[in-house]
Known about the structure:
This protein is of the alpha+beta class. The chain has seven helices and twelve strands. It has helices spanning 10-17, 44-54, 69-74, 83-88, 160-175, 197-200, 209-214, and strands at residues 23-30, 58-68, 94-103, 106-114, 118-125, 135-141, 149-155, 183-188, 207-208, 231-236, 239-245, 260-265. A six-stranded mixed sheet has the order 3-4-2-1-12-11. A hairpin with a 7-residue loop joins strand 6 (135-141) and strand 7 (149-155). It is globular, with a radius of gyration of 18 Å. It starts with 9 loop residues before the first helix and ends with a strand.
Amino acid sequence: xxxxxxxxxxxxxxxxxxxxxxxxxxxxxxxxxxxxxxxxxxxxxxxxxxxxxxxxxxxxxxxxxxxxxxxxxxxxxxxxxxxxxxxxxxxxxxxxxxxxxxxxxxxxxxxxxxxxxxxxxxxxxxxxxxxxxxxxxxxxxxxxxxxxxxxxxxxxxxxxxxxxxxxxxxxxxxxxxxxxxxxxxxxxxxxxxxxxxxxxxxxxxxxxxxxxxxxxxxxxxxxxxxxxxxxxxxxxxxxxxxxxxxxxxxxxxxxxxxxxxxxxxx
Length: 266
């Protein structure tokens, strides 16, 4: 117990003094490592401008590069910082990176960019077997007026059997969180067979924002002619409003996935 006359920790003081935030704008996008579909062109600077234009408070990124030595030599406009830091720039003051895949030239994984302080984060290895490396990036944000806000960035495997095990690990993580805390789970689920619900429906209070708003999940892949419903935004202990598929230019040529955006109210 804190002594009644003990000074508040500065972060606690900021949280108490700040006006409560009850509306948060979210964006999730598979960045395809900063290249167009089929890796024809490096477009990370264009992607940064597009991400900025959405004015999201929290951004969930998948397939973002930490480092890549050969690309850094090959492309004259390759950033001096990791891709997630380049995308955050001066707009998102806090960011977290979960390195999943490591290879001789570099590494890639998931990232979360936030306009709110990131109190802590953990990258959970959910790789099942073989060379495919996957992770759940779990970040805890300090949103004024709320004790904790949990943002989990997801990129699941390509094989159905792997995804089913990874979804169970995600549910175990969700079950470990405080019961009343707001939670967002967003990213690329690779669930083209639409079987994730068989597992996630057992996670108490979790719902997918497009499923609730439109009765079906969003078509996001491939970006130019979307047929598959791979990307998702799940929410718990919050309400979602006006979910959108960003399916117009420039998004159709900035990745092989279309981004998803939504506003949630706490």
